[in-house]
């Protein structure tokens, strides 16, 4: 069997100091949805750029359906579709013209393209808007058109870089349904996301990267299981109280509670029972929580557990992560250690 | 690990039944040109307002400053318009840097880089679209020139040759501005970076005033820089050469021979020189971002 995607010890440094990828390896089986998770700046987009021949790795190997992305970029380009982080549509062109452009640049014949374009517009609910310039489109419509454009030439492997970032919940659900539909037709999908919920819903297999390294790998179920079934979130009056509460609650689970500012988080498997017990313990300590919630573990919890730091979203980093500029400028230096 | 590979589809680069690499390079270039031209038609006001500025220059120099500028051998409007034409198309070529910076900023370049298209088509399509845009603007400026009293001093064939020369020069500049566009963080900056490059070239030239009115140190620069050379050639082709006894100095040696082909020759040499130096530099800049 040929893997859809193979990465072997991929490394990439921007400038001399910013190590974007520090030896990333993983394989993806064809016809699956594969989730690449990580906080902003983890290296997700760099992996996608290298695999889509937009960027060259410093060392290591990357293959798409057996073709080396560095020595056979032309072959790779005929096999892939890319929907990058910013919805890369030409806003002066109509939806149909955008698909025409991408189709022609994929060297499709005009007849082939006409049929394909109208069926994609139909499939993505853009038929009515097909002849309107895309500057009149909503964010969700643009994103759908962007994904449609990446599908014009029937790619065998599709790269979706944070396809739902900035979408409203309804559009997000649309994109999810579309991705599932593609995978059921045999397309391999590499999806990057910051949302565990999204990866959980779609991906059969996940890789979590941070600081350019793979820090966890597995199915969504195994990753979440490592977090405990639920998270007990307690808000307290101040940091000192939170530290006292964290200390007191050490007995309720195997994993130590995590104190963060004036909050305490406990990963638990048996939520309701633990809540009762926790409240009893706090009462004997004379501590009254200001808020209390039981919730599903999030990607944030995965990061906290795996790396000991939060997957904080830094707004300026987000802005610099825009996919258009060249490598040296786009990869921000991060303040985290 | 396995060594089997999935064969590439029929419509791949170089392996298509309907043509080879060169065929697709041209096809991609035409697709990109068409895409850019469609975009121009969607924002007609952009071209309209871009044309307002040269018209203002025509009015300013023709009616405000013109009376104070002695141009031996020419009526000032005959002297001015070829200069305005060169200035207009030269500044028009800045749109190449703006367009490419915009494509880069919006992630379109990244999309193009992941497509099996010819690598140089992105730049060639942009510069060709901007050539078409300049052709349109020149038609407009010809009408404006006629309205303010400009008359062809040679014949229609030479006038058209003059326009082609201007467009060649602007096309060469476009390839240079492609580099600026690919280096700028956004389209506004691309525009701001382009202006200081062109401003001294167009104003410290023979476009608006005769060179001998300038201080000596400036004449040295102005006489030998490409805009002056192209302006002089355009003036020769469009307005005609003044009589040798009315010495008009930019190309004294050339003008005194009474032949126009020499100014034109050097203008073509400069334009092709700029093209052949800057186009590979810009293509390299584009390719450096990818494989």
Walk me through the structure.
The complex is a heterodimer of chains A (337) and B (291). Chain A has 13 helices and 14 strands. In chain A, strand 1 (5-14) and strand 2 form a beta hairpin. With 337 residues, chain A is α/β, with parallel strands linked by helices. In chain A, the strands form 3 sheets. Chain A has a 6-stranded mixed β-sheet with strand order 6-7-8-3-9-10, with helices on both faces. The longest helix of chain A is centred in the middle third of the chain and has 16 residues, at 169-184. Chain A folds into 2 domains: 5-224, Rossmann fold; 228-296, Alpha-Beta Plaits, CATH 3.30.70. By secondary structure, chain B is mainly α. Chain B contains 12 helices and no strands. In chain B, helix 3 packs antiparallel against helix 6 (121-147). Helix content of chain B is 70%, strand content 0%. Chain B has one domain (21-287). The chains are: A alpha/beta (337), B mainly alpha (291). At the A-B interface, helix 2 and helix 3 of A face helix 1 and helix 5 of B.
Structural class of chain B: mainly alpha
**What is the element string of chain A, with H for helices and E for strands?**
EEEHEEHEHHHEHEHEEHEHEEHEHHH
CATH superfamily of the largest domain in chain A: P-loop containing nucleotide triphosphate hydrolases
Determine the oligomeric state from the structure.
heterodimer
CATH topology of the largest domain in chain A: the name is Rossmann fold
How many domains in all of chain B? 1
What's the rounded overall pLDDT mean of chain B? 84
Low-confidence spans of chain B: 10-17, 243-258
Separation of termini of chain B? 25 Å
Mean pLDDT of chain A: 82
By secondary-structure content and strand pairing, the structural class of chain A works out as alpha/beta
Number of domains of chain A: 2
Bin the strand percentage of chain B. Answer: under 5%
Name of the CATH architecture of the largest domain in chain A: 3-Layer(aba) Sandwich
Number of strands of chain B: 0
Helix amount of chain B: over 70%
SSE run of chain B: HHHHHHHHHHHH
Number of helices of chain B: 12
Number of helices of chain A: 13
